[in-house]
Amino acid sequence: MTLKSTRIDLPEAHRAQVSALLNDVAITLTDLYVQTKLAHWNVRGPHFIAYHELFDAVASHVQDALDSIAERAVTLGSTGGSPVGEVAEKSPLEPWPITDRQDHRVIRLLSDRLAVAANQIRVVITKTADLDADSSDLFTEISRQLDKDLWFLEAHQE
Ligand SMILES: [Fe+2]
Predict the structure, then answer these.
(1) What DSSP string runs through 120-135?
(2) Helix, strand or coil for residue 7?
(3) How far is the CA of 5 from the centre of ligand 1 (A)?
(4) What is the pTM of this model?
(5) Which of 10, 115, 124, 145 has CA atoms 20 to 30 A from the CA of 134?
(6) How far is the CA of 65 from the centre of ligand 1 (A)?
(7) What domains does the chain contain, in order, with CATH numbers?
(8) Cα–Cα distance, 149 to 144 (Å, whole number)
(9) How far apart are the first and last CA of the chain?
């Protein structure tokens, strides 16, 4: 992809590599956002209200992270985000089993998917560190939040 020109003085090759990584993560976060909302809407069981509210808090963190990631890609001269068809094709997350609604299973399914995203982002912190310190820092911030959200989910499962 041809990048837009910018006064940001990072080499174009670095901007291109980092934008590709940002948009890979944006695909995962777009899918994770929808899946977290599906969990929020469809969960049932004795823990309904706690899980319903917890999942919405997680969805809001994921949405904020996605917005920052996509906007960083655009800042670097690329496009930001992907259409849903491309998200469905490229997301590393397992599809959401919408009919599986029991609270203790829903929280486990969501934890599995959140962990895939959190661990993918941990890898790109290092990959971008020498290419664009700002994107690496953004990934670090998001990684810390997703790890904390994962702790919240896991803490409900003992
Ligand atoms: Fe809601």
Answers:
(1) HHHHHHHHHHTT-HHH
(2) coil
(3) 40
(4) 0.97
(5) 115
(6) 19
(7) 12-155 (1.20.1260.10)
(8) 9
(9) 47
